[in-house]
Write the structure tokens for this entry.
Amino acid sequence: MGLRSWIKRHTGHGEQKPSAEAPIAVTAATTDAANAADRDGDAWEPLPAFLPVDPREHQHVCVIASAIAAGDHPSSEFRVKRVLVANPEYRTVSVIATALAAGALEKSSFTVKNIYKMKEEGSHAA
């Protein structure tokens, strides 16, 4: 099964209905989260690209970022509004999706616009 047929099947554009086995969907088109949630009956939630950092680690990040940004201007002042770290799940999914989409076209480039994760409906433990 190719990537296009998988996307068609899981977005409802193919002949088959989306299966419950696929936990993550990647959309390359520009669709806002509200429309996607309404279309799928609130079964999908957007996966954030960045996650908040533990407040105890803010001081180290702020000092390092301010020192780098100040450079040769020690009298300058910087205010860090928020500190975020890249979401490892988002990065993994986007790398895999772009690699699959690229296929044999080595010179192509892709941008992942949105990644949605299926909401858990309960425990499926046996």
Strands lie at 24-27, 44-46, 50-52, 84-86, 114-118. The longest helix spans residues 88-102. Residues 46 and 116 are 4 Å apart (CA to CA). The chain has a mean pLDDT of 74.
